[in-house]
């Protein structure tokens, strides 16, 4: 079971193809469509290091960083409530035992 969040079409870069963030117990996926392509970026739930939300008057920007050093997953144009829900879901899924990183000795 996953939840899907769409950026507003009223924000820059989202008019024709709004950014979509999908949160599942296993991963976070961001899909950004263009006319002839799709840019898809995903992070495993166990590899997410931090979630940063920057809220404005109406819209929020979400920055999700991985522990692997990859480029952060960034999306803007989400409502404040969606941004808070995204952060809440990530924290909830990371707290589940099956998503915690395991310490495997050598």
Shape: globular
Task: Give me the CATH fold name.
Answer: PH-domain like
Query: How many domain units?
Result: 1
Please tell me how large the radius of gyration is. Answer: 14 Å
Helix-strand pattern:
EEEEEEEH
* CATH architecture descriptor: Roll
Question: How far apart lie the N and C ends?
Answer: 34 Å
Structural class: alpha+beta
Description:
The chain has 106 residues and is an alpha+beta fold. It has one domain: PH-domain like. 15% of the residues lie in helices and 42% in strands. It contains 1 helix and 7 strands. The protein has one helix at 80-95, and strands at 3-6, 20-23, 27-33, 38-44, 48-55, 59-66, 73-79. Strands 1-2-3-4 form a 4-stranded antiparallel β-sheet, covered by helices on one side. A 3-stranded antiparallel β-sheet has the order 5-6-7, with helices on one face. The termini are far apart. The model has no long low-confidence stretch (mean pLDDT 90).
């Amino acid at each position: 079971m996953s939840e899907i969040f769409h950026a507003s079409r009223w924000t820059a870069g989202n008019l024709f193809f709004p950014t979509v963030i999908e949160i599942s117990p296993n991963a976070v996926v961001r899909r950004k469509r263009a006319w002839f392509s799709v840019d898809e970026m995903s992070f495993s739930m166990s590899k997410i290091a931090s979630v940063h939300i920057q809220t404005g008057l109406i819209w929020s920007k979400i920055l999700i960083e991985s522990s692997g050093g990859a480029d952060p997953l960034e999306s803007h144009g989400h409502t404040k409530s969606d941004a808070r829900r995204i952060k809440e879901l990530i924290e909830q899924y990371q707290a589940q035992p099956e998503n915690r990183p395991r310490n495997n000795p050598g």
